[in-house]
Automatic annotation (TrEMBL):
Species per Swiss-Prot/TrEMBL record: Schizopora paradoxa
Domain F-box: residue ranges: 2-53
Protein name: F-box domain-containing protein
Length: 490
């Protein structure tokens, strides 16, 4: 391979870098340039290798930035600014007056070439971005970057470390005040990612041009309900956002706080992604109320959603987590679907994870009696045409709560579930199950057949697709019941 022509090596390097995450471009380029002399000559003159001016776990040094700028020639760049709290700022700390290192000016000088830009608000500890106070200088980032004119910038990320959220929330200033791009010229901005920050960081003048919005809430110190309201309020002024991604990781849902959002609409949203991982709820509250009330109004404000993708975990074995469990059932999925009331939803894609993947992938025989049971009523959203469920866990799925009698009229959660068990027409045409074990899904499928027959809509159903160990089996409508019998007896 060392004797390959330079043109061939150049082509190989260009294709190789496309399979690498942007944060690893630089390390990949350096590795290729240190293989041998011929590799180095080609790597140094391959601009695509040097277009990402950021690293995954540390700040990039000034000499590396200058090298990348030179070797990338005129190619579009992926840049990142790391801003830090600084010990000298004390109680006068302002989010906009953060400390930056020596690469800031070098990066700003390349703004005409930016394709993607990330602004990191790093944590209290310098190690969070591999920086120390002696390398940092306090400055007003918004003023320093006021002349940015990025005509080809398409994606902007604004990411705040969870510890910084706590630091600012407890101080005299608020992270909400930080709007670093208010004076930027970015006519082609289409996609925005916000983590642990409010939508005010993205000025309203840019909202009408966005097509893709991702909001991440990370850590236990962020007020989840305020963030959800902020997301809904962000809809004011948005007219072209077609994809909305929401991620909640390691959060505490506080059922005692339900701020009312202003009237915001996301009428243009067609695809909605919701991820809830490693989240908990303090106190003896019921998750059906918490999640339903937290996400209430989503469907009303996003009347055009036709594709909904939900990812959630089932918690640890034996864990008492009121956010995801209700009367022994994993009710996260039910709560999110009921809260939305999506009227034109056609595609529901569900991914179910374990909080400890190794534990769930290798559950012992003694744990089989405690496998998770996920609640998914068949009639929760009658408009769904295509359902896909993927999980590597050994779990069961049920469509109702059984023969439980409602003896207490104040048990509103049970009343909500029972209401969704009422027979009504179902529009399902396909069901795809990508699972390791099928027995836990068979009763739900059998009930689906029965309910669709009773409502005279079984003829709408087309096929059941089973994917196990990479192998796909398609079961036509007329063979589904026979498949259920065989699956139970196998």
């Amino acid at each position: 391979m060392l004797s390959l022509p330079s043109e061939t090596l150049h082509s190989i390097f260009e294709n190789l870098i496309k399979s690498v995450v942007p944060e690893e471009y630089l390390s990949t380029a350096i590795a290729l340039s240190h293989v041998c002399r011929s590799f180095r000559q080609v790597a140094v003159h391959c601009p695509e290798l040097w277009t990402c001016l950021k690293r995954k776990s540390s700040c990039i040094e000034l000499d590396a930035v200058e090298t990348c700028i030179e070797r990338s020639r005129d190619r579009p760049l992926d840049v990142a600014f790391s801003l830090h709290p600084h010990s000298t700022l004390g109680q006068d700390y302002l989010p906009s007056t953060m400390a930056g290192d020596t690469v800031v000016q070098a990066l700003l000088s390349t703004n005409k070439r930016w394709r993607r830009c990330t602004i990191y608000l790093c944590g209290e500890e310098p190690s969070s971005c591999d920086a120390t106070d002696d390398k940092l200088v306090p400055f007003h980032f918004q003023t320093t970057s006021s002349g940015v004119d990025a005509p080809i910038l398409e994606h902007l990320s604004f990411l705040a470390h969870p510890s910084l959220t706590r630091l600012i929330a407890n101080g005299p200033r608020k992270l909400d005040e930080f709007s670093p791009i208010s004076n930027w010229v970015i006519p082609n901005l289409r996609s925005v990612t916000i983590q642990n920050a409010l939508s005010s960081s993205i000025p309203s003048k840019f909202r009408a041009q966005l097509t893709d919005l991702e909001v991440r809430v990370v850590g236990p110190d962020v007020n989840v309900h305020s963030r959800i309201c902020d997301i809904l309020e962000f809809g004011i002024g948005t007219t072209s956002v077609s994809t909305l991604r929401l991620s909640f990781n390691g959060c505490r849902f506080n059922p005692a706080a339900y701020p009312r959002p202003k009237a915001g609409m996301f009428s243009s949203v067609r695809s909605l992604y919701i991820e809830i991982l490693n989240c908990i709820q303090p106190g003896p509250y019921d998750n059906l109320s918490t999640l339903r009330r937290s996400f209430s109004g989503f469907g009303l404000r996003m009347k055009g959603v036709v594709e909904l993708r939900i990812t959630f975990d089932v918690g640890n074995s034996g864990e008492e987590n009121n956010l995801i469990r209700w009367r022994g059932l994993i009710s996260t999925l039910h709560s999110l679907l009921h809260a939305g009331r999506y009227t034109v939803l056609e595609i529901l894609d569900v991914t179910i994870l374990g909080r400890n993947q190794q534990e769930n992938a290798n559950s012992s025989h003694d744990e089989q009696e405690n496998i998770p049971v996920v609640l998914l009523p068949h009639c929760c959203i009658p408009s769904i045409k295509n359902l896909r469920i993927e999980t590597a866990l050994d779990l069961s799925i049920v469509g109702d709560v059984g023969d439980t009698s409602i003896s207490d009229s104040e048990d509103l959660e049970l009343l909500f579930i029972k209401r969704e068990e009422v027979l009504r027409p179902i529009s399902l045409e396909t069901v795809t199950l990508t699972v390791s074990k099928v027995k836990g899904f068979v009763p739900w499928v059998r009930q689906l057949v029965s309910k669709m027959r009773e409502t005279s809509c079984w003829n709408r159903f087309s096929k059941l697709t089973m994917v196990r160990n990479g192998e796909q089996e398609v079961i036509p409508r007329d063979d589904v019941e026979l498949w259920c019998d065989d699956a139970i007896n196998s």
